[in-house]
Write a structure and sequence with these properties.
There is one protein chain. The protein is an alpha+beta fold. It has helices at residues 2-26, 30-50, 93-101, 120-131, 135-146, 157-167, 172-194, 218-232, 236-250; strands at residues 77-83, 105-111, 203-206, 209-212. It is globular and about 55 Å long.
Length: 256
Amino acid sequence: MAWRRRFFSTLAVSFYCLFVMLAPVYAGTPIAERIAVEAGVKAEVMKDLAMPYNPLEGLTTGRTCLDGRPVADFQGDIVEYWANLECPYCGIQELVQAQRNNPDMCIVVRHIPDNQYGDSMKKALSYEALKRFSVNAANLFWDSVMQKTTLGIPAPYEAALLLALQEAAISPEKFTETLTKEASEQVSQDIFAARSRISSTPTYILAGIRFTACDFKASELHQALELAKKARQGDEDAKTRIIQIITNGLMDETML
């Protein structure tokens, strides 16, 4: 029996030494990458939870839920959705369905246009201006400009905008005035607010927790929100699950 203990003890030491020697060789592999990503996600989640949460912070007068209800009058859960209208993962269909399925939830679209996307700023401004006349026209415009041609090129936003103006009977003059005033002010506020908090799109903010790179399906959003609320209340299992979800999103894996 003594020799067995010595054998397994020696074997354990050998495995440990082998692991230490080979660890640098495997650095950068998917496992190592996931560990690094998860560590970063955990730090950001803990940072969010350490901050006091005010659901209406930064949501100024004039903001509306995705279905047009004023944010200022809303009684329920506020969900922020940070998007770039040329990001291929920032679709509107699942978002609209999630809003329909959850009337006690107010989904607020916020914009983070990027210079690398040529028309992203124009699309953000046009969407917000359209929404002040017709929520349906705005959402259809978003869906239209997200569609790709057979060559993988985004559909021109000018054609989608013209169609939206015609179908909703919106005066081009009034639209232009709204775009240069209210819409411009709102998108500018979003860009400023995103500087220190939003690094990629899409990003949800649920109970004050940033769910980076998480393009939830309509059926998943409520579940993610409930986890965030539990984590905000100190539930350790919920915190762990959230870290896994965000890590999966960043690694382009199934989230829920």
